[in-house]
Amino acid sequence: MTKANLSYVRTEMLAPQDPPLGQTGIIKWVRENLFSSWLNAILTLLSLWLVWTVLSHLYPWFANSIWNAGSLSECREIRNATLGEGASAACFAVISDRWEQLLFGFYPKDGYWRPVLALALFFASILPVLFTHLPRKLLIGSIASPVFLFWLLWGGSIWSPASVMFGFVAGVVAYRVVAAASSNLLGVLAAIAAPLIYWLFLTGLVADALNSVVPIELPQVQSKEFGGFTLSVIIGIAGIAFSLPLGILLALGRQSNLFFINKVSVAFIEIIRGVPLIVWLFTASLLLNYFLPPGTNFDLMLRVIIMVTLFSAAYIAEVVRGGLAALPKGQYEAADALGLDYWKSMRLIILPQALKISIPGIVNTFIGLFKDTTLVVFIGLLDPIGLSNAIRASTDWQGVYWEIFVFIGLMFFIFCFSMGRYSLYLEKKLQREHR
Amino acid sequence: MKKTILLGALTVAGLAATAASASTLDDVRARGKLNCGVTTGLAGFAAPDANGVWQGFDVDMCRAVAAAVFGDPMAVEFVPTTGQTRFTALASGEVDMLARNTTWTYSRDVDLKFEFAGTNYYDGQGFMVPKALGVTSAKDLDGATVCIQTGTTTELNLADFFRANNISYEPVPIETNAEGLQQYGAGACDAYTTDASGLAASRATFENPADHILLPEIISKEPLAPLVRHGDNQWGDIVRWTLNAMITAEELGVTSANVRELAAAAGNNPEVNRLLGTEGELGAMLGLSADWAVNAIAAGGNYGESFERNIGSSTPIGLARGLNALWTNGGLLYSPPFR
Questions:
Q1: In terms of domains, do A200 and A330 share one?
Q2: What is the ipTM of this complex?
Q3: Nearest beta carbon to residue B176 from set A106, A382, A389
Q4: What is the pTM for the complete model shown?
Q5: Residue B337 class from Cβ within 10 Å (0-12 exposed, 13-18 middle, 19+ buried)?
């Protein structure tokens, strides 16, 4: 049987044709995804109408925005002159007039470079912490950076924060010396005692002495002069930086078999977590004033930073505890079987795994903390929200509303979004399961 | 570890807090600055300008007191307070005085243990409604939604007024004046009620002021007054007589422009001489220098100057003197004599 005999079989192939219009490209996509049924078609049209309504109202408002005016009424005059009466136009002139205030609060004008440099220095100093492929020696710079950050922001002599920092050095030295000479426990006790003694009796003297030899000073800035995003970022970053180690310690304390440490950690976490942050802030700002002797000037900003730190530490502790609980018991036993002591097993085996699991939760808490800094407006600190009220109370800008909040929202979004992105990067990098 | 120390220090400090405090004047002098509680922002009364310098009618009051004590009107630390935190801030000593459009009432004076140092602005509560609502009297507001600031006397007056007239309303609680205006502008409430001065000031900033009317009813007395804590009468006297000095200065024609000249040597008006310290020992009686009133007047001008500069008819707020004119001009301002 040859092919030629089969007359009903085609002997040559047809040239390939394009698929029908309805089965390809954008039309296919639209049909399958947007108009696959009557219900979907209606929903699609409704959504289109919604998007159009929102955009048609918002776009002219943004597109016509006015950036150069001294007051809201001037804005309106410009708008009436160029666009006609009643046109929709944003008056972003309020931002160009007051952006310095929104960013720096009442910080002295000739010192604006200081918070900016401090922020840059902060980012430079956390780079080796965030990206592990950088040389490890850079970490020394990271550890020393708080001294420079404090000095840049508050001014005064650089030796005051530096001499406080020496306390930690004293602790490490004391541990090394005593632990080598006697037992580990005595070393820990010495590491706690040495800095305490140093801070109580020597800090001021050392700072004065060093300053008289090598005076390095910047003009002092009072905490009350901080405001706007400088205030939010300082409270946020300080809260984040201090609450992570404190939270990890609390989480370990809650898992601990030692009765006292366990109960103290549980009580701390439950009490702090059980009360709203705003109550703690009111406690810090109002209640403490009744207890402190009149005339005591215990910095309000410091009080707020402490409260925010304690509050988010309690949350971090629970997030980390989740990570610790997720580890199989075998990991703990393996650490024990290797003969590691408690701290070594935690540092080398347990925590790296537990923290990796907790990253989304930790970053989530940090983002929440950063946004919660706006609550300080209720105790009269002028953060961006507080300043927005003050700006709208000036005769020039009374009546401006959305423009300021759009700006503030955008700034917060940038910070929170970058934190979220970094956490995704970290999660991907640390992924070990599917290699 | 740093935190442990701070908390420890806090406890110790808390235990030591029972120690008796010195007088407010001594505290202020030792600090070198007056802590003055103001609003977080109210047009014409207190708000920071683009350079971060506080400006306004209440701010001038603080500056005058600072000038009376230190001779320097800038020696003030302004502490922004909200309607909720203002009294705690004063009672706890966080601020030395409040100049924050606070209405002088019986219970605040007696029960909250504050001392009001004389009225610096006579106000009354009014209503603003859109013209389109077609309402001409507050009694027509039956069933209306009303925007109202929480924690203020206006909230209580509103309830009283509607109950007395046997009509109903639905409150829309708001926190600040700016928020109230936004809600009112967005149509969240039919009427906005607050002090008439605030209403006039706000209406002036509207896109179309003519579309809104202030109803004729003034439903309350709102004497706004600076206040201090009970129990330190010397400090209370300083604030009270600084205000009186500003009022008397207007009455006697002493202004920020001519005060230095008039104070250079005793003139032929004995009342001016006593006020400006060129005659008598009035400053020493207060525990201040002889030229305390000169400094206070030079700081922000006399009462009339401060009024005109911040809230008067030449400003966008454009308030008329009304009740706040001198008694000689048919108003209520009447300072006891400097003698």
A1: no
A2: 0.77
A3: A389
A4: 0.82
A5: exposed
